[in-house]
Amino acid sequence: MQTRPTQAEYFRSDIQGLRGIAVLLVVIYHTGVALPGGYIGVDIFFVISGFVITQLLLRETNATGTISLKSFYERRIKRILPAVAFAIIGTLLLSVFALSPFGEQQQVAQTARASSFFAANFYFYLQDSYWALAENPLRHLWSLAVEEQFYIFFPVLLLALNKLKIRINSRLSVAILIVISIISFVISYLLSIGEQILPKPELFAFFGTPWRMWEFLAGSLIALAPSTRIAAKSIAAPLSAISIAAIAWSAISFDSYTPFPGSAALIPVLATTALIYLGTQSNLSTKLLSARPLTAVGDISYSWYLWHWPLIVFAHRVFPASEVIAPISAALISVLFAIISLRKIENPIRHNSQLHGKRVLQLGAVCVLAPLVFSIATQKLSDTGLGLTELRSDSTDISYADTKVCRVDLILDLENSNCDDYSFGPLAKRILLVGDSAAGSISDAIASVAKSNKFNFSVYYANGCPTTYSPLNYRLNCKADFADIQKRIESLNPHTLIIANMGDLYVDGAGFGAVIRNFDGNALKNSEEATAFWIDNWRSLLNDRLKSQKVLVIQQSPLSAMREPILLQKFISSIGEPILLQKLFDEEVSLDNSDTRNMIVQAEAELFKNYKNVAVFDPASVLCDDKNCRQTLNGDALYYDGRHLTVKGSLLMVDGITKALQPLLAGG
To answer: What is the CATH number of domain 401-560+590-630+645-665?
Structure first.
């Protein structure tokens, strides 16, 4: 089986153009202004990487008869590590000025450590926080981790085949790679549609290297393809055009509701492989991909990918009200960072012929250890109050609650846990608050109400898992957490049960990046269908399990337009409250900003009218008029982040909650 010499002997400008398209798709997607399926750019990168690396290794075996792992990994170290180390360190430094020290800087530091060892994909898979998965400035490094893990596995596989006297471009080698690809794809598909063959299946499908392997191998198989050509330009040209159209269609049509990677990824992956295979033909598509504007973007694609997302995240923090200009400006500014990285770091190190052997190993060690040291330093600065952490409020100003709460999702043995309760009255009089992080957010208010009415008070909640069967099966143990909370309800037998959930997170899948689906694994098409499912499950919960239980439902708070109100509050205070920033801080947010939340609240209210044992409280009744909602009160932030109330925000709800509770508490 002969390979095509044109794919092994010269630089492919069309592939560089493909890199340009891939990074443009990702950057535009991350700005949030267009291309809801632009994340497929990562899949294009994976296919290209598989092709290029296989071609490189094939060329080496043809020339030397073997594969030098030492030479291969030296090249990878020089090519990849310096630029990513520079980006991680830069992001850590910027995070001190742009992110809250109350958790977010620590999250970035933890992500930096995982990224230094190319394990960011595992780190994100293990996280259950909204922020870690949605707005972490190092989130995008998961794909680099997947790629590096492929680079560790693949050359070793080919070397093993070579040692067994199996040529890497032989029919047997190709057959082995095809089998691995099929297994990888099938499991990827099953995980992406929610099959519970592994914990957190959708996340595992997205972040797991084994289930992304087939995308790399698609490129590898093209590199090993026989020299048979599609000779007729009349066939090659339309196939190339169709492939470009398929990529464009995927970027426009896919969104967060699309189960991915799974079968949907076949479209951009196959389109990319077709473009690579047909790229040696002279046609309009090849000329388009080889055009200098695209190849120039391809030249900076690696560094631009590294820098664009951190700057977009930081722009959102600094200019929270700007949803278009800020992210686009950040993306454009990141081009300058990319050019600097390319010219001052990437190319000088990559093309340094004097850098080899032990010196490369030393370089690699520095590139791993430097971000590690900076991440530890950043976290220590955050812990000790240096830098912008001088803006720290008292913990009671920014914590979800100043109460003794029990996080069910973090406790292995709930029955023997030492979760403390508030004792304000006789044992028979107990208020129990349950839910997801919304319960933690409102718990100070409930503690105050319980104390005023001489009721005992307990809190049991699980982040990311609502106390109702939800449309989003985000975490495998949500069912288990729900069962644990249900047992706690039965054992405590509270006088009044209070439930608080963050509904829009499950109806939209916002912050999770996972397909919306119910606990049976069935996909839901849109937020309206998901809302209907949400209401059906409320109905089942009230009819079957809480039929005789007095229940107060605290609905979701309207969303804040500011992602970091606490940090902004302290920043304004520290610089003398200039008029412009004070105006921004005191600015109200339109109630329409919470459209999904509003839809859920209205649907819940209609349902709860049918239950005499159920009362309902909407925080919007305190925070909002008919059109706008306050985000501050007397200069103090009412929100910790974009959706969770501060202690001050929580305590502002006391009177409204007391009024809503009175009919239930009056019943004895």
So the answer is: 3.40.50.1110
